[in-house]
Amino acid sequence: MGSFVLVEKWIYEDKLRFECLLAAKEYMEHEWYLAAGFVRNLIWDKLQNYKEMTPLNDIDLIYFNPSCVSNEQDREIEGALDSSMPTFNWSVKNQARMALKHGHEPYTNCIEAMSYWPEIQTAVGATVLKEGEIDVRSPFPANEVIRLAASRNSKCTSNVFDSRVTEKRWSKLWPELEIET
Predict the structure, then answer these.
(1) What distance separates the 2 farthest-apart alpha carbons in the chain?
(2) How far apart are CA 129 and CA 27, in angstroms?
(3) How many CA atoms lie within 13 A of 92 on its CB side?
């Protein structure tokens, strides 16, 4: 939905993020994305005109494999990524399992799974295509995602959204960030 060409360019220019994508690509056989703060923080940093990127607390790798919904596969992938890039806290989640965990109807892919995430601007991921190109996707339009704002997804309760805004301290990290409930 919409064009994420600018975000793809920013990721290409960010050596660290690009290396993380290439590392993840080595271990993934199914649809996958490095998502959430991995992309969102970069967007907010750029829109805030930061010269230094905000450090990542973790790197969320999401993938979709409905044929294996145990978290054992997640731990195996995390272990491999921890070995190849040990300076990061990798968090790997099969979105087919997350539908079960949250009591949702089964998701059909990662994009549908992201459509349930609490903030519109968090529901964005980047992957590497077979041709080596970066592909950024979201269930929401690019003009909603590429904003210096945290907007509550209508599928999320206000309590969950408010709690995340407080816990993540986004207003301190990005002072110009608009919080839209």
Answers:
(1) 43
(2) 14
(3) 25
Number of domains in the chain: 1
Give the CATH number of the domain where residue 35 resides: 3.30.460
Is 97 domain-assigned?
A: yes
How confident is the model over 15-67, as pLDDT tens digits? 999 999 999 999 999 999 999 999 999 999 999 999 999 999 999 999 999 99
Of 116, 123, 60, residue with least CA distance to 92: 60
Residue 157 neighbours by CB under 8 Å, 6+ apart: none
Rounded to two decimals, the pTM is 0.96
Query: How far is the C-alpha of 80 from the C-alpha of 60, rounded, in Å?
Result: 14
Residue 100 lies in a domain: yes
Helices (H), the chain: 5-13, 15-27, 37-47, 72-84, 95-102, 110-114, 142-145, 158-168, 170-173
Residue 73 lies in a domain: yes
Eight-state DSSP code of residue 174: S
3-state percent helix, strand, coil for the chain, nearest multiple of 5:
45, 20, 40
DSSP 8-state class, residue 120: G
